[in-house]
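Following up on my earlier thread - several people asked me to post the actual chain instead of describing it. Fair enough. Here it is, all 146 residues.
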Amino acid sequence: MTTVLETIRGGLIASCQAASPDSPFRDPAAMRLMVEAVRVGGAVAARVESIAHVRAARDCGLPLVGLVKRASAGSDVYITPTVADVRALIAAGAAIVAADGTVRPREGARPSPNSWTPPTPRAPCSWPMWTASRPGSTRPAAAPTS
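Reply from S.P.:
Thanks for posting it. Predicted structure:
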């Protein structure tokens, strides 16, 4: 069985996002067409912003890297700021979730010394890489080691 990471290794991951609030690509149906277009153009995956857009494009034949962009009071974290966002993106059909991997405070999060380890040359990032290795999976997959 081929993993998502093996499928996308070495290929183009196209960013399919509405650039502004008034963009015609804010419509999930239009976003689905954009994802289909990058698949036809040879992309191996699409980076898609918003749960609605992931849901609309989930059966286009490409793995989706899902993310949520949201400003939160009391936090500078903007990209997929909560675990609830991660779970919602996976439930919507994201194969991989892009998330802020910094130690900055997060909305509704309590500091925990075990929740994140700063990167080192030997271990570049210990933030869990969330992948949906099978439909319905909400468990973090092990990040690849170098």
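The beta strands are 13-16, 45-49, 64-67, 96-97. That should answer part of your original question.
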